[in-house]
Backbone:
């Protein structure tokens, strides 16, 4: 069907944490890309888990020499690139040229590793994932991307139980993010009009085995992504899509991961 008044459409995906991504959820995302055929794509960061360069792993242990770490780092780099290859394959299939990568806090661990080992610049996040070669515009952690009247970033600046309300209070603008792995929305009307904040979940495997650091604690994580339709003067409508048990409904079609 021809769009009537929609000038462009974006698809936005949250935290994947490769190699800990949920394969069924990623399959739903890929199929949805090919149905939606967006004009642009935004990745909200934490593409990889990057456990190999996490400083948390050495909290109770002595850090080993670099030659011990390198095979693990290479394994993580390969996992993130393999996942990005899959997503790019679907984006290329429907000729998506506008692509953005908003660096997440896990992704930035790679940059911290390079600061410690400045002779290995190839492991900075944008270099390790060949973002320029892939055609992504890279946005460092904490940088806000604005498309129309909606801002995007990873989501780590403001938290709390009601983090969407907190983002609205602190930023006073329309904002979409990931980071917290939960789906949440809040809205407020200011003198200059209504504003909303969206947290669009994650695409990480939510099994206890892949999230041992939670210690079995229950959480409110959810798999999801968003479709954003833009029309006149930068106005937009957000369509959050939740993925449940590897399945979602997109434009009246059930997608099975």
Residues:
């Amino acid at each position: 069907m021809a769009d009537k008044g929609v000038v462009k459409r974006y698809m936005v995906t949250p935290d994947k944490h490769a190699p800990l991504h949920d394969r069924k959820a990623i399959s739903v995302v890929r199929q949805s890309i090919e149905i939606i055929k967006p004009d642009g794509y935004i990745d909200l960061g934490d593409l990889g888990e990057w456990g190999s360069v996490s400083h948390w792993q050495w909290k109770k242990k002595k850090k080993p020499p670099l030659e011990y770490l390198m095979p693990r780092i290479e394994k993580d780099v390969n996992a993130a690139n393999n996942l990005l290859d899959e997503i790019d394959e679907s984006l290329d299939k429907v000729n998506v040229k506008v692509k953005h990568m908003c660096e997440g806090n896990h992704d930035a661990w790679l940059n911290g590793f390079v600061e410690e080992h400045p002779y290995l610049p190839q492991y900075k996040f944008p270099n390790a994932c060949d973002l320029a070669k892939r055609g992504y515009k890279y946005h460092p952690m904490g940088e806000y991307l604005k498309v129309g009247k909606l801002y995007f970033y990873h989501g780590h600046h403001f938290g709390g139980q009601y983090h969407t309300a907190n983002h609205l209070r602190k930023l006073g603008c329309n904002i979409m993010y990931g980071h917290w792995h939960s789906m949440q929305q809040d809205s407020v009307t200011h003198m200059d009009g209504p504003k909303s904040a969206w947290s669009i979940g994650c695409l990480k495997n939510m099994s206890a085995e892949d999230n041992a650091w939670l210690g079995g604690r229950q959480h409110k994580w959810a798999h999801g992504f968003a479709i954003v339709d833009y029309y006149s003067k930068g106005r937009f409508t957000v369509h959050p899509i939740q993925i449940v048990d590897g399945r979602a409904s997109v434009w009246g079609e059930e997608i099975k991961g």
